[in-house]
Specification:
single chain; 167 residues; 2 domains; 77% helix; extended
Length: 167
């Protein structure tokens, strides 16, 4: 796990340098920090992570960096709690994907069935993100209205304060 954290830090730093120096496209730019190759233990996994990070746009990379820093600052108990929540969420999505597969009545080979369930999870993630954006867009104007209402309420002194000031 520590090796993955180090790799992620290196990848994020390297990607940050690449996006600042936009002389070449990020996919062709040579990283200034050596990245573990496939010859290292779990090198293939590190390579997947590196490629995934390179594929992020600058805004996604910024959010990733912020989240990574927040994660690094969590206590071991908080990390375990979040890990448990994520494992539970993934298990639930897996079960729902299997239920969706069953609901279709399809009889697919195991590999294709797993692909179906994986696509279900991807499409569900997209849907949930879209719903979150929609909800935030609806929430924003309503929160502004609440702030304006509170501003007007609190900008005039309450009646009890007015009568005590008059004395």
């Amino acid at each position: 796990m520590a090796a993955l954290a180090i790799l992620l830090t290196l990848c994020v730093q390297t990607r940050g340098q690449d996006t600042q120096n936009q002389e070449k496209p990020a996919s062709k730019a040579k990283p200034s920090t050596p990245i573990p190759s496939r010859s290292t233990p779990n090198g293939a996994e590190f390579e997947k992570v590196r490629k995934a990070l390179e594929a992020l746009n600058p805004d996604q990379l910024r959010r990733f960096q912020q989240n990574f820093i927040r994660w690094s600052n969590l206590s071991p108990e908080e990390k375990k709690l979040l890990g448990d929540r994520e494992a539970f969420r993934r298990q639930k999505i897996q079960e729902e994907g299997e239920a969706a597969y069953t609901q279709t009545g399809l009889q697919l080979p195991t590999e294709t069935r797993e692909l179906f369930i994986k696509r279900y999870a991807e499409e569900r993630r997209k849907l949930e993100e879209e719903l979150r954006r929609d909800q935030e867009e609806r929430r924003r104007p309503r929160l502004s209205a609440i702030v304006e209402q509170l501003k007007s309420e609190f900008s005039t002194p309450p009646p009890a304060a007015q009568s005590s000031e008059a004395r």
